[in-house]
Amino acid sequence: MNTDTDRDRGILSPADRAYLLGEVEMSHAQSKRNAEARIRRRITDGFLDFNLFTHLLEHKDRDLIFERARDDGEFRRALVAALAFTYIGLKEQGVDFERVLVPAVQSAEEAYAVEQSATNVSVDVTFEVETTVNTTLEALETRLAAGEALTPRELFSLVVEGGRDVAEHDRITLRLADEDDRAHVDRLAAYLEGEVRYTSERLAVISVDEA
């Protein structure tokens, strides 16, 4: 998760990012409601702008945007987050992700075939999700309180998806699956305003100063 509030204006302004990250305190309830309404409008308008991006943005501009996906892990994680945000939003409303995924892939493949080889294609898209419950947020919270190591993803689930205040724990141990997990640990430490120390190739400790 990118916590840099000073990036150029995107869907959100730097002030919007600071609010979502909890770096800005609203003195009045109405100010809080206004900020949240403004963010909702900007996200909605951002989605609507994708019609323009898809149909009117120059091919060279699209290339310059997505060439970053080859070697920019932060950019790829942002793409994953965009799809995850869309998926969970639709799921909460009882709308199958397949209803937007299938026509998106079909139209994109058809346009790509025409553009690249001047051919017409038939596109068959299969999308299937199988979910297995491994552990609950309550179980993760119990493990954290006991000082057990969590994965970066498990800690992220507690902080963002579960809304837990894990900063009350002054020491959080994380178990890394590979070198790429270090980037996730560093972002979590920044979000929690803590310091990270790698005790081995596969273990990291985030120290959180409650002061």
Descriptive notes:
α7 (152-161) packs parallel to α8 (181-191). The chain is mostly helical. It folds into 2 domains: 14-117, no CATH class; 137-208, no CATH class. The radius of gyration is 20 Å and the shape is globular. The protein has 8 helices and 3 strands, in the order αααααααβαββ.
Per DSSP E runs of 2 or more residues, the count of β-strands stands at 3
Overall mean pLDDT? 88
- How much helix is in the residues? 40-55%
- Percent range for β-strand residues: 5-15%
Instruction: Supply the number of helical segments.
Output: 8
Low-confidence stretches: none
Structural descriptors:
mainly alpha, 3 strands, 211 residues, three-stranded antiparallel β-sheet, 8 helices
List the helices and strands and how they pair.
Blueprint: H1 14-20, H2 29-56, H3 59-66, H4 73-92, H5 98-117, H6 137-145, H7 152-161, E1 171-175, H8 181-191, E2 194-198, E3 203-208
Helix pairs in contact: 7-8
What's the short story on this structure?
With 211 residues, this protein is mostly helical.
